[in-house]
Amino acid sequence: MNKNDTTLRIKNEIHLYLDGELSENAKAEFEMRLLQNSDLRAEFEQIRQLKSLVAQSHEPLTDDAFFTTRLMSTIAENKNKGFSKFNWFRSSTAFIALTGAVLFFFWLNPMFINKQIDEHKLSLVEFYSQNLRPLFEDKNLTTAQVFDFAFNNSIVLDNNTQHELHIDARDGNSSIIEVRLRDGSVETIKFEDFLERLEISSEGKDEIDSILNYYAPKIASSILVNDNNNSIAVNSDLVSLQEAVRAEVYNVALAHNSRGLQVVMPHVPIISDRHNIAQFVSQVKNTNSNKFLVFSPDTVFTMQLFIDADSLSKEIEKNWEEFESEPNKGTHKRKTFSFSFKAPGAGLHGQMGSGEMRIFTDSISYRVEMPPFPTNIVIPGMDSIQRQIDRAIVHMRRIPLPDSLAGRRRLSTYFEFGGSSSDSTMTFNFNMPQFGNIDSLMSEFGMRRGSFADSIFVNRRSQFDSSAVFFDFRTDSLKSGVFFDKEELREEMQEFQNEIRRFREEMMEMRKNLQPERGKSDSLKIKRKKITTQVEI
Amino acid sequence: MNDKKNEQDVTQTQTIFRLEDDFSLIKDFLEGNEQSFVKLVNRHKDKVRNLIYLTLGNNYQVEDIAQDVFITVYRKLSQFNFNAQFSTWLYRITINKCKDHLRRAKLRSIFSPFESAEDEKYVEKHDTDEFEVKQIINDAIAQLPEKLRIPLVLRDIEGMSYQEIGDSLGFEQGTVKSRIFRAREHLRVLLEPYRKDLFNE
Q1: Most buried of A12, A114, A227, B68, CB within 10 angstroms?
Q2: A45 in the same domain as A106
Q3: Is A300 in the same domain as A163?
Q4: Segments of A252-354 assigned E as strands
Q5: A120-145: buried (b, 16+ CB within 10 Å) or exposed (e) per residue?
Q6: Residue A377 to residues A249, A268, A273, A397, A422: CA-CA distances in angstroms?
Q7: What are the domain boundaries of chain B?
Q8: Domain B112-201 has what CATH class?
């Protein structure tokens, strides 16, 4: 029996003794122990006092002289009403009758519940879709904002709350529309940088500007808000608009600096099929969907808003011009827009396009996934640099780990760089608390500060496991060189490869150091457990 | 009764006499004598009322619940099993009635959460200012969870044995024991701020 059990048993004995629940023998034994042990006496005294405090705390109720008289008269009254037969019989009869009545009611009105639900849905839709107005009705959507929408997948909805609309026309197998809090950690590509890196001439810039300006009112007419009720209605066409903007901008870039574009975006040749692009773009331009996704504080639902998108976008454009010509007018008169709407029966989780859409929510975002716009061309996003790096390091993705480091549970025998081409970072999960920061990791493995590795490793603590340390390998930041030229990239890759080789050698060294101690003691087991490496793909 | 018999024997004889007495009253009642029931009520009513008071932690509903208990006893006495003591059976009914009441009160409190929270706050503050030992102990007991409070008061105030408590609550003795210990530990924690004033160390 360990010490804790003994203490607990003795403590329990105090209670049993004071409650008079110990046998004569146990009682004598306990009294003997009490004499010998001063700690036990102190504890005993406390519980004894507590017990007597509890006993004294209660003041008995005063006598109720008429209790019995009242009771007997109640009994007599109830007896006259046949109360002795009350029991289960009457209550079960009532229950059966009630159930029968309810069943009969539903038999007469089989659609009652569905009707109630539909009514509720309709009132919800009415509530959230009243007073909708375009988000950008009076503030001009700039070319930089349209560029952000197309290439950084984001439109800021509210600068104060940092809410943004995240649109990704092709995130894996689905298109995404999401209302969420802005993620400041994601590196973005600025419009000016894009033009500069591709060395686009001023004519080219004008051309791109005109494209972006053309799409601005279309985008503006696809995002409607209701300030009072915090609802946002987004036209499902927005995802295809995004692809169309991308395609057109690529097209211009390709015409002006095809070599530059190919360095930055090796996949662009796929879109050089100009006929298909033109077809796709005109298809998008002529589509006029009235399907809106409405994000409200309660729910996300689809509905049809009957608006003439073309005339709305023209109206918005006119608004912008008016506002620009009279910017000092102060209180710009707000126009009222009225749309008629129709809530399709299914409403909340309905069909969108050809397939089912899926809705995800958490505390900071509402996310809707739906099938992508059907087209036979692929318009790449800005993730191709990532793919280039993927290719460069593919042969060193898996680094076997020495047996001594490979773990027993949950642990892997190799070290793998993960991350798909759409992620901005690759992560390797590195459960090595002794390297609490980048400096200690790098000095341990002989890496230089200020090198390529310095700018691409970012460490963070795990929020779930305080002993785990993660090192993120960032591959998609401007800082670490999104727009390398080929030579520079090759050199950096070489450097990085060398560092990884040195790192691997160090790991082998550690393995040698650990081997003689294997199996010696328990403390070593703990040590080994700490150094094991977990891999996250 | 023999005068030379020691005290223990006297107690035992009295208990036996009492047992028979309860039983014979019940038998009398079942044979149609209502007066026997009145006697039975008079004998046990104070115990029942106090038990309700202790179990609820207040005296607002004591009389109503006590009446309800005896009405149930009146209706169900024909089902009484003469193998057990009448008092154990009676206490079991009493505690079940109290539990029903507490459950209903909890349900009702869902619909008026703000009001009751305010009330409690007020009472608590008022009492702390007054600093009266009994009140402090009562408040602390009232804060114990129901499943700990009831066994504790049955033991320390009513003076029931573990066996009797177990029978009344429908628990094993082991459960009773551990709940009483836990209740006291819990109480000690609650009384910690008043430790110097309440305990002589």
Answers
A1: B68
A2: no
A3: yes
A4: 291-295, 300-306, 340-342, 351-352
A5: ebeebbeebbeebbbbbbbebbebeb
A6: 15, 11, 8, 31, 18
A7: 1-111, 112-201
A8: mainly alpha
Residue A294, strand partner residues: A233, A301
Q: What is the CATH number of domain B1-111?
A: 1.10.1740.10
Provide the residue count of chain B. 201
At position B165, the amino acid (one-letter code) is: I
- On whether both A100 and A134 belong to a single domain, the answer is no
From chain B, the residues in CB contact with A12 under 8 A are 177, 181
In b/e form, how buried is each residue of A182-193, taking b as 16+ CB within 10 angstroms? beeeeeebebee
Give me the interface pTM, i.e. the ipTM: 0.78
Q: Which residues of A touch B (CB under 8 A)?
A: 11-12, 15-16, 19-21, 42, 45-47, 49-51, 53-61, 63-64, 67-68, 70-72, 74-75, 78, 83-84, 87
Q: Residue A450 is part of which domain span?
A: 385-531
CA distances from B170 to B22, B65, B78, B155, B163 (A): 22, 20, 21, 15, 10
Distance CA A384, CA A386 (A): 5
List average pLDDT for each run of 10 residues in chain A, which is 537 residues long.
68 89 90 88 90 85 85 83 60 90 90 85 79 76 86 81 80 78 71 77 87 87 79 85 84 76 59 69 78 81 75 77 66 56 47 60 78 63 50 49 44 41 42 53 53 48 45 42 50 79 83 60 40 39
- The number of folded domains in chain A is 4
Between vectors from CA A371 to CA A365 and to CA A373, what angle results, nearest 5°?
A: 110
Residues A402 and A376 in one domain: no
Residue A115 belongs to some domain of the structure = no
